[in-house]
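ok trying again, last paste got cut off:
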Amino acid sequence: MKKYSCVFLALAMFLGLAVQAQATSYDPTNLIQPVNALRMNQGGQGDALIGEWYRATVGTNFQGELDNANFLTYVSIVNTSNDWVAAHVRLRTGRYSIEAIDFPILLSPKDVFWFQFEGVGTNSLTGVRIWSADTKTVINSGLSTTGVWENNLSNSILNAFTSLPAEQKGVQELAIGYIEVIGLWKLRFDPRNGDDITLNVPESFMKGVTFQDLQQAFFNNGVPGGAYRLNPTFTDGASRSVIPVDLGNVLTGQVFMGDFTNGLYTGYAMTALADFRTNCGFAHRDEFIRGVVLGGIGDAGAIVYNPLSFNNSSRVDPAYTDPDWATNFGPTWNDGDDLSGGGASAVDSFSLDEVDDALAKQKVTSTYFNGGFRAERTTFSMATITFPTKYLHFFFTYPRFAGDPTPVPWPVGRPADASNARGLINVPGTVGTISLYGSIYGLDEQQPYSVPSPYLLTNLRWEVNCVPIGALSRAKLSEFCFLTHAQGPLDVDGTFYAGWFEMLGFGLMSGPTNNDPRNTYRVSENLAYNREAMPLLNCLATNVNASAFGYDRLIPAMVQVLDFEFANFLHARSFTPAFDNPNDCEQSSPFAGCEDPLNIRF
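nice, full thing came through this time. structure:
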């Protein structure tokens, strides 16, 4: 089933440009930009954001989990537009991407919302607390009536998996993970009242209105488009109604981690996905499940859910209730644009291909310190590698009962059945590893590895992986967290005290392929997924050379590099490394015009 971009091909032919000249996430400068081709926006604005990792506690000297109780994570999410904008925020744990907390936010025009979270306990971790005193946004979002919101991250979904060992279900799992922000809608005046839909809704008209008020009204109205009636505020005495529409690429975000009492902190800008969800005429997952469009006048770019499902246990909205094995409620990466033109069942992966293609990387390159230049060897490097879509490639289906291998669709919208299913899933035995080929260079261009290959293979087990660069870095940073990689292809000795390294591959190495929607027949159509129109994934050598590399699908990786300096007092920095992808591949022959970047000789 071929995927099609919502692009005017006639315009392409008129300009004499080949179809493959369409811009992609790795080549955003081509002349024809597809109308809704999901892409990673290097400019940092989008309608969905990913905070690549967070850390709630850290040991000052890397000797324990709570040596420094002042360490916390600070997050800011910005609405750069003149519209009211709603989004859904979720924190996932680092080992298996299990949902730890999720909540909605309603941002006024030009608003910035901040929250922070930190470890709780003395000498041992007893919980992770999240809070915000961003008064206006907290009240608008319905999180609190006082303007101060406080909550705790929860391991309740983790506890539903009876196959997980106790040490993988405790509160320490909440201390490291990553962040998702999925845009829902923006507000515009309802043209059915004769108003101009392009007009912004002023803040003064929204006094006393919360996210729950708006969302419930939109959900209840349903087709042909939800509306919320405002009180008469105009000079003519007329009342107005507002509707939810596609919010556009207006969100940005930043994450800072550290001890803000002494200046030990690092930070980064969230990765922005542009056009994750648009009104391009394609069916979306939530529309398919409900059979109706819940949004402004058929605007498929808006995401609307019943807030009762979020606020209590009744879970009356099947489109977003237990949408997958790791998520209790809310939109996921399956709820964006699916260029195949519609789904076949509630559990289908509607937009996972598009997100994978936007985030995929072929090669990551960075400098490192393995002891550093000082004779005392006090500077060390670590890479945090996150796979934000990996969890969705597992448990697309599940066994109907223990001992029965027959796969059945995941019970979307059925909380009791989903809870039972989680108890049957062997998570540690099924979720696969990601392969990584690494190579490292010293300051004199020397390499530690000899022919036949300069690259060595390792496997990364978790969704968030902390990988020290070099043996000295590993020894110093091994206590950074329980997800720190023990050793690997970049584990060179102290003679390589600085230089640069590269990571390649990022392929799914293990796990049963019948759990991956990319290799599973669609439940209702009996049709396999086809990625012919996914230009990046079709070009990467790791995606097409299955027999040589032992895997057949690439998982997108997000990488941050951290440098720690222990001279005098501990200080640190983090940055996004360089990455590279092919950009001139022929669809008919993936290696035509493409360099095989690994060049691994067996």
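cool. The two ends are 35 Å apart (CA to CA). The first strand starts at residue 39 and ends at 41.
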